[in-house]
Amino acid sequence: MYSRNQTDDRLAQPVPADPRDMVLRTERVNVYYGDTLAVQEVSMDILKNSVTAFIGPSGCGKSTLIRCFNRLNELIDGCRVEGKVIYRGKDLYAAKIDPVAVRRRIGMVFQKPNPFPKSIYENIAYGARVVGFKGDMDELVERSLQRSGLWNEVKDKLKSSGLSLSGGQQQRLCIARAIALKPEVVLMDEPASALDPISTQRIEELIHELKQEYTIVIVTHNMQQAARVSDYTAFFNAEAGDNGKRFGYLVEYDRTEAIFESPQQSSTKEYVSGRFG
After folding, report:
1. Which residues of the chain are under the pLDDT cut of 50?
2. What contacts 24+ positions apart, CB below 8 Å, involve 132-136?
3. pLDDT averaged over the chain?
4. pLDDT of residue 150
5. How far from each other are the two terminal CA atoms of the chain, in whole angstroms?
6. Nearest partner of 209 among 232, 179, 233, 236, judged by Cα
């Protein structure tokens, strides 16, 4: 499932047997903040209708990389991306690609729930209106809330503020808001780290359900969570460059059971066994 660079203890990625299984591909992606390298030469494929988890110690570039997939990094002053991020055969950083259109197809759920200061209904409907949705809005709102597992809890209070919900409910509302725009890929950056165990379990159950329709990439510091929810796992590590500043790189990427049960790289084994990180 992986190709290994014998001259470097860094690796590669699983290669799909059928190219049609590939939704996203990075080719030698480097990310800089100003002149400082943050992520070095990441090449990997993301497969459709799968959950891919990014794990690794703090500062190894997991969140930086995931934000490359829908061009959110370019909203940060001084950030630049080198290499290619390919979605359905098109380089997302090509000159004529509209980043707003990219974000419609590749949605994002952040670490801290961030519902709009609007009603539950408008949290879903607002984005749909912005992109010119012409269908039945009530149906869209209901369907999105059903898919996020929230409908039965909020169907009688759709006019209430989204901010009135619990933390776990707010995060599911944010997921409903993301999928209302009918993306193909949903990015999740530590989606359960601010939640209690019961809410975390519900988010994990939801991820399992959503992968039937969406491709999901999740950043998590919780290795048990990665093992529970993902089909593929990418382990990242970090090291200091010549300037003394740390940058992240991909160490190993394979099916989740292989990463946790029989990793090929020593640093992966040390990390998943809890010896560092």
Report:
1. 1-10
2. none
3. 90
4. 95
5. 25
6. 179
Q: What is the pLDDT of residues 28-64, one digit of tens each?
A: 999 999 999 999 999 999 999 999 999 999 989 999 9
Strands of 22-33's sheet, edge to edge? 90-91, 79-87, 22-33, 36-47, 246-255, 232-240, 51-55, 215-219, 185-189, 106-109
Long-range interactions of 169-173: CB distance < 8 A, separation 24+: 169/199, 170/113, 170/115, 171/109, 171/113, 171/195, 171/199, 171/203, 172/148, 172/202, 172/203, 172/206, 173/113, 173/115, 173/120, 173/123, 173/124, 173/145, 173/148
Residue in 75, 59, 71, 68 with CA at minimum distance from that of residue 26: 68
| pLDDT the model gives residue 145 | 96
Residue 2: predicted pLDDT: 36
Nearest-5° Cα angle at 51, 48 to 56: 130
| 137-147 vs 167-180: helix crossing angle, rounded to 10 | 130
